[in-house]
Amino acid sequence: MPRARRRPAGPDMKGPEEKRTKTKNLGRASAQVENSSLQKTPVSEDSGEALSSYWLMKSEPESRLEKGVDVKFSIEDLQAQPRQTTCWDGVRNYQARNFLRAMRLDEEAFFYHSNCREPGIAGLVKIVKEAYPDHTQFEKNNPYYDASSKEDNPKWSMVDVQFVRTMKRFIPLAELRAHHQAHRASGGPLKNMALFTHQRLSVQRLTREEFDFILSLEEKEPS
Q1: Quick check: is 180 in a domain?
Q2: Is 72 contained in some domain?
Q3: Could you read off the pLDDT of 118-144 as tens digits, one per residue?
């Protein structure tokens, strides 16, 4: 069965952050984010229909023990799962939970390798099941058991994600940072990217412009 995984400490790998695990005995994935206000799914003023959102979700690709559990989970580990699908469980932060609850079927997210020798964007996943109660909050043997959460009123949610593809080339953090810094001066699409403006968030909402620009980097040689 797959092993547990932890939420990374952010792009500079400094300081503690809430953790996401993939429990070895349960074959589950997990996620979490820093606190902030609930973000609702955008709605088109013309049609009243919800607009798609885009996401970045971090996970650690290198082995490290957390309370005796190996927290490693890479894009390759996801690809090796049955149906290349797993649940994104273990969220114990309200903002993270709110992000997960805002996700809709078929929305895409970048799978970001964090807290490792070379952090960066490794692949794409999509949401294949919208938010539902996270079972790990009720399991006493799980590192993220929450005794205050009740089955008739669960505090924590998760989504299911499915592997889409690896990136045509790995997009390293250093390259993204260089674009962010340049765009701060020029007004480019990465000027306000949460990876740098809210570094502690391990699940982040992206704008369509940010998402498309990062996809375009696949076709370019790094400068």
Answers
A1: no
A2: yes
A3: 999 999 999 999 999 999 899 888 887
